[in-house]
Amino acid sequence: MKAMILKEQKKISFDDPPLQMTDIPKPVLKNGEILVKINACAVCHTDLDEIEGRIKLDNLPLVLGHQIIGRVEETRSTFYNNADRVGIGWIYSSCGVCEYCLNDNENLCHDFKATGKDANGGYAEYISVKEGYAYNIPENIDDISAAPLLCAGGVGYRALKLSGIKNGECLGFTGFGASAHILLKLVKLKYPEAKTYVFARSKEQRDFALSLGADWAGETEEYAPKKLDSIIDTTPVWKPVVESLKNLKPGGRLVINAIRKEENDKDSLLKLNYERDLWLEKEIKSVANVTSNDLKEFLNLSGSLSVKPEVRTYKLKEANKAIFELKSGNIKGALVLVI
Ligand SMILES: [Zn+2]
Ligand SMILES: [Zn+2]
């Protein structure tokens, strides 16, 4: 089968594409697994972290990609039939027996395995996965629109739950990429009286947020017109975290929705002012990975509310182009490889 593979981790350079089209063997199924013929795979900022070495990889060469939609082509599972449409996200497997797994917190399992990191992912024609880690996709959402729901949406949904936001409250977003734009759409449908505030450094992204119905959009350093109940940080850097804390109400919470932060702007942390940014019981919480339940809940919700991301599509062989685009930081919505 054809796959775009990563052979070596290094800084992304526009004249040295990180992924190479290669023929690799189709996965061979074990008991309880399904073989999925992939139709679409969305590109995630975590893929950049993997390419550039912020996430350690032990099994190169590797197929990246963890926002996968396809159809079952072969099954050694009693749960799925051939031709069933399924999605696969960042959670590839977990141990199933530890205290976290037994309490629906597999995202914290010591043996959490990630798709496109600990196992080959979706920048390819096929993938195999255990039956419990594939999810039904709502019929009213097409493959290309559904792919970004598997991480940008699903992990974002976990961040939204951790933010504790309620209808009528004020929610902020720092950064306005794939994840924040899906969450904004979801919040407007699920909490129609909530107000949304977006902090983004590019005017295109601020305008994009306003066009999707954000109540206010400003630059990273700005004061929002109101104090916010919670903020979800969707950026790969520290500056927006530190700059946004002053906008939280007393007792407000900031949730960091990122697997890794880039180290090159660590100095931003030195600007943290305890009195202005954290005093009065403000909280900072990180989001780790995603659980199977988060994905099931979020996919059901997306189907019933018809949450559809804005997407730009690429062919599998154009995966490097999508990576460069994402790295440039000036994207509108989500990037999806059509396979
Ligand atoms: Zn992701
Ligand atoms: Zn476990």
Layout of secondary structure:
Layout: E1 2-6, E2 19-23, E3 33-43, H1 45-52, E4 62-63, E5 68-75, E6 85-88, E7 91-93, H2 99-102, E8 113-114, E9 126-130, E10 135-136, H3 143-146, H4 152-163, E11 170-174, H5 178-190, E12 195-199, H6 203-211, E13 216-218, E14 228-233, H7 239-244, E15 248-256, H8 274-278, E16 283-286, H9 292-305, E17 311-315, H10 319-328, E18 334-338
Parallel strand pairs: 11-12, 11-14, 12-13, 14-15, 15-16, 17-18
Antiparallel strand pairs: 1-2, 1-4, 3-5, 3-9, 3-18, 5-6, 6-10, 7-8
Helix pairs in contact: 4-5, 4-9
The structure holds zinc ion (2 copies).
Secondary-structure arrangement, i.e. CATH architecture of the largest domain = Alpha-Beta Complex
Q: Helical residue percent?
A: 25-40%
Q: List the secondary-structure elements in sequence, H or E.
A: EEEHEEEEHEEEHHEHEHEEHEHEHEHE
- The outline comes out as globular
CATH superfamily of the largest domain, please? Medium-chain alcohol dehydrogenases, catalytic domain
Overall structural class, as computed from helix and strand content, comes to alpha/beta
Q: What is the mean predicted local confidence, pLDDT?
A: 96
- What's the gyration radius in Å? 19 Å
| Ends distance | 12 Å
Largest sheet: 7 strands, mixed
